[in-house]
Amino acid sequence: MTTMAALMGTLPIAIGFGAGADSRRGLGLAVVGGLLFSQVVTLYITPVYYVYLDKLQAKFRRRPGGRKPEARPEDRLNEVALAGRDH
């Protein structure tokens, strides 16, 4: 929402209304372009990058001689909960 508010606020500068608009148009375009680029990187590129890294990490963990996954505390809690049901 912050990015969209800043984008809408600088859009009139980028479009160039009013007196002296030609001198401010470059600044407005730079701000709008930077906001759009940062939003695309944040919302699309970064999550895709992390998904690929997660798949690569899983691939290395599966191969022979790879590091074994570490036990997580929630796994131990599940074991305890399942063991308690048997009694």
Secondary-structure blueprint of this entry?
Blueprint: H1 2-15, H2 21-62, H3 73-85
Helix pairs in contact: 1-2
Describe the protein's architecture and organization.
By secondary structure, the chain is mainly alpha-helical. The protein has one domain. Helix content is 79%, strand content 0%. It has 3 helices and no strands. Helix 1 runs antiparallel to helix 2. The longest helix has 42 residues, at 21-62. The chain starts with a helix and ends with a helix.
Primary descriptors:
elongated, 87 residues
Order of helices and strands: HHH
Helix count, DSSP H or I runs of 4 or more residues: 3
Count of the domains: 1
In whole angstroms, the N-to-C terminal distance is: 52 Å
Give the radius of gyration: 25 Å
Question: Averaged pLDDT, please?
Answer: 81
Shape designation? elongated
Low-confidence stretches: none
Q: Which oligomerization state do the chains in this entry correspond to? A: single chain
What is the total tally of β strands?
Answer: 0
Helix residue percentage: over 70%
Largest sheet: none
Compact overview of the structure:
The protein is mainly alpha-helical and 87 residues long.
